Amino acid sequence: MEAVPRMPMIWLDLKEAGEFAFNAAVKKSAVNVPRDFEGCSTLRKYFGQLHYLQSRIPMGAEQEAAVPIAWTEIFSGKTVTHEDIKYEQACILYNLGALHSMLGAMDKRVSEECAAGAFTYLRDHFPHSYSVDMSHQILNLNINLMLGQAQECLLEKSMLDNRKSFLVARISAQVVDYYKEACRALENSETASLLGKIQKDWKKLVQMKIYYFAAVAHLHMGKQAEEQQKFGERVIYFQSALDKLNEAIKLAKGQPETVQEALRFTMDVIGGKYNSAKKDNDFIYHEAVPALDTLQSVKGAPLVKALPVNPTDPAVTGPDIFAKLVPMAAHEASSLYSEEKAKLLRDVMAKIEAKNEVLDQFMDSMQLDPETVDNLDMYSHIPSILMEKCAALSVRPDTVKNLVQSMQVLSGVFTDVEASLKEIRDLLEEDEAQERKLQELLGKVPPPQGSPPPPSPGLAEVSKECSKYMEVHEKASFTNTELHKAMNLHIGNLRLLSGPLEQVRAALPSPTLTEDDKQVLQNLKRILGKVQEMRDQRMSLEQQLREMIQKDDITTSLVTTDRSEMKKLFEEQLKKYDQIKVYLEQNLAAQENVLKALTDANVKYAAVRKALAEVEHKWNTTVQTLVASYEAYEDLMKKSQEGKDFYTDLEGKAARLLEKARAACQAAEANRQQILEKEMKKQPPPRPTAPKPALQKKPPELEAGGLDVGDLPPLGSLVLSELPEELRSL
């Protein structure tokens, strides 16, 4: 894109510290840090020194030197107290992640990876029971949010650097993947109850971002297709980008103006690309446009990662101020054992995540949801939106009657106007014919056929006004016809909505399933239940493993163990995880069989699914049509009234013009009579003229002796017989 619009980012509040019997100066500097990178450095140093302290002095839970430590829980505002120095470490680590998230949301768009690293270390190395805001679900949500926002920052930079379209598409697709994970966490009922009122705001923003960055991904896939001269693929990718952006715009309602501006800018870019691509393909390239699901999906490219936290890095924590209190050998050995546990966890999690990725991709491709796989409950009742419309019409029983009467009145006025204008036109045509006749009688050359003689001034004005009214009438006639069509379209639906609810229910489509179809559905839902059961068991085993690792502290044993025996001690201690690893392996191995069974069930479900989808489409279409008819009623009544007002006014004008036309035609006729009379007075009386026999040759009849001269008519009568019929009658 020519520029890169920015979306707002989510940042987390810092926890507030309460009571902790520790040096006041140290405590103050650690809990009231400035909101900048210097504050991050201070928190890291304090966290590292706490790590050194707890490795030497028994300040953990139920240990001799434990003291009360109080912090405020973010979401409820309650003060939570634990006698465990690890609680202090956990809260400092949470604040480190929150501060990084705050800095990452600023204009410089940095440090989101640091935030993800802090929350990951907190999730993997500390108990989740300290407070709600540090539970496993919340930390997973924070990690995915931070990784998504870090990838989003990378996407912005990639677009500004004009990186290759395919790479930008993959980076954007990974943003979508991270936000989908965050959205799954937000949709979890337990997480929603923990977050409270901010859950809806976060969920709405994340859902909007999912569609927005999916649109960006398909925009750049379309640009890549354009570079490869695959013009049919270009059209479908741009169309998909446009569809996803429209979904993002729907979800962006209530978001800040900066979001709306970003969406408008992106719409201008994608809309322009789509219109241009479609026009070029329609008129120039004529390539077939493939279906989107036939093209290879865009696989995300995870180019960001949670930056690791090392509490013993002297470059970060500074020198160990407690170095003389406890032998470092025990501390170093404990750190080595912690690394062994972390390695075990990483190995197990790699297998789990690989299987989860396969499972997620498989389920996404199947598009199967256990809750909505059949939707049969939907057809057992009238949807609430239709119930509202029926209830609204029940208190207005004359709705249909009023609409019909209004349209009948409009038709009557329309007919009256048309009759008046026709009569005016007939009068003008009759006057034109009489005028042409008079011109012919007077011996004047009449105008060419089709060119009327010039009318009198009065009739000219009538003709001009008549033409104007006719033009207005013709334009309004089209609108009137469309209005009648609209009324005929909606009148039946309005009658249905005004009638008994049983008739409304009967008008809605419903599926007809055989016993075999129902059996197929039940089997599919059973296997989907197995899939969910497998997921839940896997998550439970993972949680158990994490809790075992967090509680596994062998420091006491390390103090009394010789260095040469450390490796053997580690191996013995790590055997405690074998059983849960076996359970996890069995769970992961079962996935292949479950997915195979699901594939077979889905094949049998295909015909039922198609039938249900068709019925659902008809159901939704019928509901939307009925709702549209209800909503069109007020508009039809308004337009009908406007039509009546318009034609009533036009009827008055046409009536007045008709009277004016009649008067003008009468005046024109009287004028023609006067002209005719004057012309008759100018004609001399006919006089007979004596024939000249010497110059005339007898007709054959006379020469033959058949006729006598006395038998011929008078000469005057011959002259009169040559006059037109109208003058002879005078």
UniProtKB/TrEMBL annotation:
Main localization is: cytoplasm
| Record field: compositional bias (Low complexity) | 705-716
Listed GO CC annotations: endosome
Q: Which Pfam families match?
A: ALIX_LYPXL_bnd, BRO1
Where is the protein situated, by its record's location annotation?
Cytoplasm; Endosome
Q: Which Gene3D superfamilies match?
A: alix/aip1 in complex with the ypdl late domain (1.20.120.560), alix/aip1 like domains (1.25.40.280)
What are the record keywords, sorted? Coiled coil, Cytoplasm, Endosome
Positions of region (Disordered): 675-716
Q: Name one GO biological process term.
A: endocytic recycling
Locate the BRO1 domain: which residues? 27-359
Q: Coiled coil where?
A: 414-444, 524-551
Q: Which InterPro entries match?
A: ALIX_V_dom, BRO1_dom, BRO1_sf
PANTHER family to which the protein is assigned, alphabetical: PCD6 INTERACTING PROTEIN-RELATED, TYROSINE-PROTEIN PHOSPHATASE NON-RECEPTOR TYPE 23
Protein name stated in the entry: Tyrosine-protein phosphatase non-receptor type 23
Species assigned in the record: Eudyptes sclateri (Erect-crested penguin)
